[in-house]
Amino acid sequence: MDASDAQPTPGSLFRDALARVAARTERNQPPPPPPIVTKAPNAAAFLKVAAPMLLPRADSEFMTLELAAAAAARCPTGGDYFVVRSGADAVLGALRPPIGDGTLRLCGDGNDGVAMQAALLLAECLAEAEANVKQVSGPASLAEAFSRQLAFRRRWKAPEKTGGLRIFSRRRPAEDAPRPELVTGESRSAATVVEWLDACEVEAGIDAEQRTPGRVALERFGGVYVKRVDGELACICGVVGQATSPGGRRIGLVYTPPSLRKAGYATELVKGVTSVLLDDRTGPGFAVIVVPAGAPDGLWTRAGYAHAGDTATYRLDPAPRALPTNAVDDDSETVQ
Known about the structure:
Distance between the termini: 51 Å
Low-confidence stretches: 332-336
Number of helices: 9
Strand order of the largest sheet: 1-2-3-4-5-12-6-11-10-9-8-7
Radius of gyration: 25 Å
Strand content: 15-25%
Mean pLDDT: 86
Order of helices and strands: HEHHEEEHEHEEHHEEEHEHE
């Protein structure tokens, strides 16, 4: 039987329909304009231009919005702020404000091909300008692509991944969560809360010189929410007081002493704290929790949070890239 006489199968019909849709899409939708790198004079100008790209993804871009908002409030001048556009649309941002540790932070949709192209272009531009970039962070795929391209163009060693974060978000309060108690520096339980804040940083493995004393942390949080059992403290939870981004707030710490764990106290407290943040209609539209990559996520998912995104941090080493020494064998022959 001739192949042209074969009856169409469901699979072949689907492939034919998909091919027609793809061909029609290609004809009706021209390729996006090539990306162009621009530079904003300060954090406020950066936010104005980048907001249409960032706000629809405010949960996953929370760390960038938090940093940019803090820089706009505290540093009206100085810093590096880049926006890459495709036509009229911003598709990638990068900022290195005067505050912080000098890390260049990228923002954009890591699943979007135009954003990936923009990250490579920005890396090319900064490599040509011989910009002093020692560390890069941002959405995992964009940070990796940018770092590798910059290192390749500068003939540096391959970038080293030094860490990353996972971001979890929740937009609705928990209906059954009791309102938690807030302990401040003047409360009768303040001394115990301070001890637990110190213990949390020790358990997290934070270097001694980088730890925040519990008393200072309590003041920065503006008070810590607590869960009590039979009148005694069972769990604490802090909300980052001054670090806010458009539309959201961040839970900065949750700690339960080892002897009181696996009883559901942390889950109940996180639900209650989240409801406090989201019940206020004049307040944020979502709450986020940021944890190191690889940390267990059971607590957050049990508390109703959903995974919103991942970030990665890369360190760039300006040492020359090593070239292979055995690329050509001495006994090889030249072919004309």
